[in-house]
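# step 3/5: fold
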Amino acid sequence: MELENLKTTWQSVKPCIKNTGCSTQNSAYLSKKKDVKSRLLKKTFFGVLFTFVCLILLATSHLWSPTKLPTLWLAAFCSVIAVAIVCGIRLYSAIRSINLWKDSNAEIMTAIVQVKKRYRRIELGISILILLLLIWLSLTPPFLNTLDMYIVWGLTAICFSLEYLWYRGNIKQLNTLSNWDE
């Protein structure tokens, strides 16, 4: 008896379940989140592209640079930049794998937290490696107490400041992507 009541109740509710879809309000939220995700993907892509251009310029610096850096330094910097490119590509694919339309809120939040962790680790690791290489470069005899050393440190301070602003902007985009109350 109870089983038949349950079955008839299910049959009466079943057509209504098929007709319910994503509400227009949820669709508007998801469209906005999709725009945020596409902006974040574009920023990440251009960051990787810019890093690749920097790698090409540094690798070919013996052809155009007036201050010829030793090959060991160029190899060290190029290898760190190559690692940064690989990490950027992995970050891009992690952001791209977030599916706003099919994943649940919990899955989206978990993916965004993982992307934030990965992004923070990449920024911290690459920044420390570059800083160590720049200290090594500026404290070796050809560059010690020269104008080139001060130029390198000035440009380094400017670049780290700009990178921090870029990082904060991307984290704000990720926070917007994870915030469902907007």
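# step 4/5: annotate
The chain has a mean pLDDT of 82.
# step 5/5: archive (pending)
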